[in-house]
## 1
Amino acid sequence: MYRIDIMTLFDLTVGDMMNESILGRAQERDFIRIEAHQIRDYTLNKQKQVDDYPYGGGRGAVMQADPLYQCWKHITDTYGPGHTIYMSPAGKTFREADAKRLRDDYDHLILVCGHYEGIDERFIEECVDEEISIGDFVLTGGELAAMVVADAVARLVPGVLSDPECFEDESHWNGMLEYPQYSRPEEWHGRKVPPILRSGDHKSIARWRRKQSIIRTRDRRPDMYAKLDLSSKEDQKLLREISQEEADGSAES
């Protein structure tokens, strides 16, 4: 069973979120276990204080090393060593490739959620294996980031989703964005489902979807598109078709 422990000041909120929907059902079936731990429970003072003023001055407060360490130690003593990740805006930006790496290389993650002005560097030096960011922005705490990472990794664990195709066709898995999706009814507000998707011809549908993924990736994420390997005969044919169709469209307009 894949295990994820989240160290947080908001264990009830995080725990509730991680026990809903697909992840909740996967935990009921023992494919994964996600548990949130209240850091305040591991402080030694009566006020349950977990932060103090920063050395050197400055605004705000810093989370103290010892409550974090005691919480971390309880997790490792109880459930065994885990790959410890501090959710930090100074960390490496999280990608789908990282979700796959964390799923493949570890069976136990410990996610540390900071608050205020951050956490004591000494805890990072002693206990943290890597720092991860979910983007170039700052949040009021690490909980949202930790839930993002937990969700992205957990859904890749075998059994959590009904079939690997549920994530292998999605955006970012193979370096591309996903093709457009449609559901009933066939026409909504004058907009119709592309006829190819109602044809029943699975080979043609797969080809159409590949073409749409190429177009969408090129238009929306040129950085991803530049890294794609489209050298196969089939992809080269699709590229020629796209170019011709767009040229025809320009001529008509």
Note: Strands lie at 2-8, 32-38, 51-52, 62-63, 83-93, 108-113, 130-133, 187-188, 191-192.
## 2
Amino acid sequence: MNVRMTIATTRRVLEQLRHDHRSVALILVVPALLLAAVYFLFENETLPPGFPRTFDRVGLMMLAIFPFVVMFLVTSITMLRERTSGTLERLLTTPIHKADLLFGYALAFSIMASLQSLVATAVAYWIFNLDIKGSPGFVVMIAVINAVLGVALGLLCSAFARTEFQAVQFMPVVVVPQILLCGLFVARDDMNQVLEAISGVLPLTFSVDALKEIAGNAEATAALWQDTLIMGGIVVGVLVLASLTLRRQTR
């Protein structure tokens, strides 16, 4: 992989995003608005004194899930446009390698994901008073990794789509099962054996487990770092797989 080519690709993608106000709004604003909707869903709940708010549990998980979903959608459609417009084919006639292109895209959207996570986390803590034991810095770290995971899966799935509509159709296949089985709605121990086994290999499960460690512990735990390393390894693996399946154009 050529670092100079990767950085050049990153700069090109960021420059394109700078002029695409709708995508910027989708990345930076929409997760915060969705988080606000989650807060107001539970605003009027009645709880015994000292009992933790539902928002403190659900809102924390949404800080990772919303970036994952948004970045998957934006990335898959953006890469598909590059291919259908012929931009990708022209780029690959230059000395740039597929890996340089993919990792350049991943880096550019990772920067946007970092900004997205900072905005959403700031809203959760400063406006909605999210109350957990762990540090906000660890929450941002997991949210960013989750967003990058969305980028990696979006890049991979875009290789198998011919239209933007087909790219969106991958969401029920790739994104929704992970949200359902990650342990957010039902504890994994309460699932049947088949679903529990499937959930144990889904990337989003590790991010939810990591957030639970952050919520329950003031200091970083070994389980938190283990989940973080696994998620990082999955991201790299998916990006490598995406570079192998990347096609020059869609006919």
Note: The chain has a mean pLDDT of 84.
## 3
Amino acid sequence: MTTTADTDANPTDYVHGYSPHESRRLGDQADTLASLLHYGTSYPEGSKVLEVGCGVGAQTVHLVAASPEARFTAVDISAASLAQARARVTAQAPDALVTWHRADLFELPFEDAEFDHVFVCFVLEHLPDPRRALTALRRVLRPGGTLTVIEGDHGSTFFHPDSAYAHATIDCQVQLQYAAGGNALLGRQLHPLLTAAGYDRVDVRPRPVYADSSRPALVEGFTRNTFIAMIESVREDALAGGLMTPADWEHGLADLRRTADPDGTFHYTFFKAVAVNAASRNPSNAAVNP
């Protein structure tokens, strides 16, 4: 069962865009990495869970599959993404208990301490002040409730055959995300960010992805359809910004694609953090003065 409650909000810049191609990429990423990223995440029957920045619902379907008796509230700032998320969840989990809201993370239309758990995946990397966002989320999370955060880190990328041109194409995406107010290297910062935002018992664990020809599903689902597809999508912006010449870009992308060949290998690390909302601190005041 899904219901909707929309509030006024304006989408912010999303460096990857909102194209059908990006929607497919997000779905491929979530499905390919579900066992890696969602391992250990499940919520008790009747618990109230807030997913912030649900996007097209790529992660939502895996959340509800792991916790079918929990009550989910999914929030995103994009109405178009929410429509896709509702359709995705309805098709794959028609009995899921999900309520949908269009809202800004910093203006969530919920009571204080309304949720038992909060889940945030690939959201903080797009925000200019992730610490402030984490602090703001404490307001709607009950004291003692848990926050789960998942982020990647493009600096963890290495591969064979190695190529300076391929690394340069990846750096284009890092620079463009930084220019848009985000940080593609955020994964390594989760522990200090969560601690500074007032959370207790912060536990951060790396979730590495390694793909070679003995793991064809990861080569196709992650190396090609997730990571390389993401880099391919910033070509026009990278060239328009003068970050690389067209010839060097094509050289780098060709070298990056080589890592998915039978003799290639590819490595990337995600970071998953679980933290507890500290009962003794005042999140409302902290959110105003981060």
Note: The chain has ten helices and eight strands.
## 4
Amino acid sequence: MGDGDGWADCDLGHTHWGRFGAAGLLAYHRDADGQMWILLQQRAWWGLGGGTWGMFGGATHSHEDGVTGALRETAEECTLDTGLVRVRGTRVEDHGGWSFTSVIGALDEKADVKPASRETRRAEWVRLEEVEDRKLFAPFERSWPLLRDAMKGLVLVVDGANVVGSRPDGWWKDRAGANARLRDALAALNEGVRGVPGPVAFDRCFPEIVLVVEGAARPVADEQVDGVRVVAAPGSGDDHIAGIVRNAEPDTEYLVVTADRELRARCEEAGAHVTGPRWLTDRLERR
């Protein structure tokens, strides 16, 4: 048993379940026809908000972050294999002294999910447009208008040549080595629950990271590492990056890291967000 079960008061004068806060998982899946499905829990009749629908979740323990707590609670309350969830981001509702963390995660398959504890009456995949037809758990009902716009992923596209070239550390003597060091540093961005602030409706994003290399740095793509997809541009790195954002995946936002003005304009025209190398290097240096 953990130490989070129990009631807590917040600075707004409310009483909440979870001595150290609470967290829940909002899992979604988009099928081949483009239909978005949301996994919902119907709460047991005997509990708080009995019979209403919302996300799986509950109290977090003192040693847990919101992501860990949400996935654990979900695994306890239903049969979903939470190891298959691709966490996209988190959104925190802070009441002062108590907070609830909504964890948004994607699933590649609409798995059959059943109740696994007495806290869950039913588990069901619901069409996005039909969520509001259910009798919703009051806190979830309040947050749903914001959460429904947050079900998307972030792809962080890094212009390797530009980022490496932004620091006078001797990179021109060994372009491949400099890009390999950048690759390894990028791999740490999603370790644990660090993530990054992003342009989508999250407090913290856990992006797919794509490092684009060119020229003498192309051999770096021969050695892939967990957490970063290294792509060797066959020609111009700028052209390859512009092509990535022009061919955007559904439910996905793109954040391109570059200081190149022409590339910035091309990416913004294609609908991507753009930030400079300093934004990235500041975060890498905080590891």
Note: The first strand starts at residue 7 and ends at 9.
